Amino acid sequence: MGPLEQKIIDFTHSTSFADLNDEAVRAAKMRVLDSIGVGLAAFMAPPVRIARRIAQPTSGPLQSAIWGSGMKTTPDMAGFVNGVMVRYLDLNDAYRTKDAHHPSDYLPGILALSEALGASGSRFTEALAIAYEIQCRFTDAVPWNDNGFDQPVSGALGTAMAAGKLLGLDAEALRNALALALIPNLCTYQTRAGELSMWKGCAGPNGARNGLFAALLAGEGMSGPFEAFDGVFGVWNQTLGEAYDIDLQTGGSPQRIWGLQQTNIKTYAVRDSCQLPIDTARDLRVKVQASEIASMRIETYQSAWLGAVKDPELWAPKTRETADHSMLFSVCCALIDGTVTPDSFEQKRFADSDVLDLIGRTEVKVLDEFTDATPQRRNCRIVATLKDGAEVIAHRELTLEDIEKGMSDSELEAKFHDCASGVMNEAERLAIVDTIAGLERLENVKYLIGLIRSEQMQVLLDEQDPMKSGGLG
C-alpha cells in the first residue's frame, strides 16, 4: 500500500465524531440545511426530472428516499438524484484554493447511505466530516483541474471513505473501496470547458454514486486494484506525472479548523469565483447606472479568469450552465438588474441584447498583485468609463477568514426559507430547520429524510412528471 493510501485510510479509520469541535458540528449543520434548501429550489429542474425518471424502486435491505417522493431506491441512486437537485442551481457550497471543489455535491449520497443504515445524526456528521476533509485537502494540494481532470476524482474517493466509515469497513476493505472509487473514475475537465451542458451539475453527484458503489462492493469483499496512486499505471503516472501529498490531521482540538468550516456558502446562483464580482458590481451600481457606462474593465486574479472568463463561450453563453460560470454575465446582469438570481437564468437574461451589449464593451484583466494574494485574499476591481469620460471604480476583497466566518444562522435560515418556499409551507420548513439544529442528537436520520416531503411536491410530481415516483415501470 502506498503512503498516501495509508494516510487516507488511517485518517478515515481513526476519525470520530468526538474529534469534531463545536464550530465544526455547527458548520456541518449549516451545510446540511443549505444543501437541502438549494436542492428543494431545484425540485423540478430538467436534469432532476431526468434523474428521477431513471431511478428504480427497490425492496432490498438498503433503501434510501428520493427527496420529495415516496419512492425508495438504492443509496447510490438516491445520492445521485438528490445530488443533482442540490447542484443544479450552482447555489451549493464551494471550496477554492489551489483547485476548486463542491463538497456538498457528495452530501446527499452520504446522507442516503446513512438513511439506509439507520445511522444517527452524529454518525452521519462524522462521515460527512471525513468526506469534506479529504476533498478540501486534495483541493489545497493537487492541481487536478490544471491537468485536465475534474472534481469527482477526489470526490468519489472522499465519498467512498465516508461510506466505508458508515459501513464499519476495516483497513483492507477501506483500501479496496479507495481503489474502486479512484481507478475507474478518472473523469476529465471537459465537463467544465467550452459550452457547458446539464452534466456540469451532475458530475459531482455521479462521483458520489460511484463512491458509494465502491464502498458497498468493498464491504461485500470485492478487491480493488493495488497501488492505486503509485502503480505503473496508477493515478499519478496517468494524470499529473508526479506524486502529491495531502495534509490530513488526526485527532481533534478546540482550535482545529476542519474543511467543513472552510467552504463558501454561496449568496448567488453562480460559480464560486463569480460571487465576489457580483458584490463588486452591485457596489458600482450604487455609484452609476449601467446606461451611463461607455466601457468597463474587470480586474481579477488568474484562477478566476481561467474558470470564469477564458473560454470564448463565457462571453456569449448559450446555456444556463455556461451563464452561471461566466464572470462577464454575472457582472453585467448585476449592473443592469441589481442582482443575479435563479430567475435570471430561467428568463435567459444571458441571451438578451442589453446584457450582451454591455459584455461587448467589457474587458477583463488579470493583475499579478491579485493573483499573488490568492488564496488568502481574493480581489475584484471594476473600472467603469462613463460616456462623459469620467471613471468610476468599485473594489472588493474577500479573505479566507471572511469565508470561514460565513453567513450567520439567521442569514442561512433566510436563504433556506427563500429556496424552499416554492415547495413547502412555513411549518414544514421550520420542522426541517429545528431538526437540523439538533442533528447531533438525532437517533436516526430517517426522521430528517421523512420531513423532506410535502403536498406541494406531490402535486408537482403528479402534474408534471407522469412517472411521479421516479420509476420506469
Summarize the structure.
This protein has 23 helices and 8 strands.
Number of H- or I-type helical stretches:
23
Shape: globular
Helix content: 40-55%
Whole-number mean pLDDT: 96
Strand content: 5-15%
Structural class designation: alpha+beta
Structure description:
It is a single chain. The chain is of the alpha+beta class and 473 residues long. It contains 23 helices and 8 strands. The chain has helices spanning 3-14, 22-41, 46-54, 75-87, 107-117, 121-141, 152-167, 171-182, 203-219, 235-238, 259-262, 272-287, 302-308, 320-323, 327-337, 342-346, 353-360, 368-373, 400-405, 409-420, 426-437, 446-451, 455-464; strands at 64-65, 72-73, 95-96, 100-101, 293-300, 362-366, 377-386, 391-399. The strands form 3 sheets. A 4-stranded mixed β-sheet has the order 6-5-7-8. Helix 15 (327-337) packs across helix 17 (353-360).
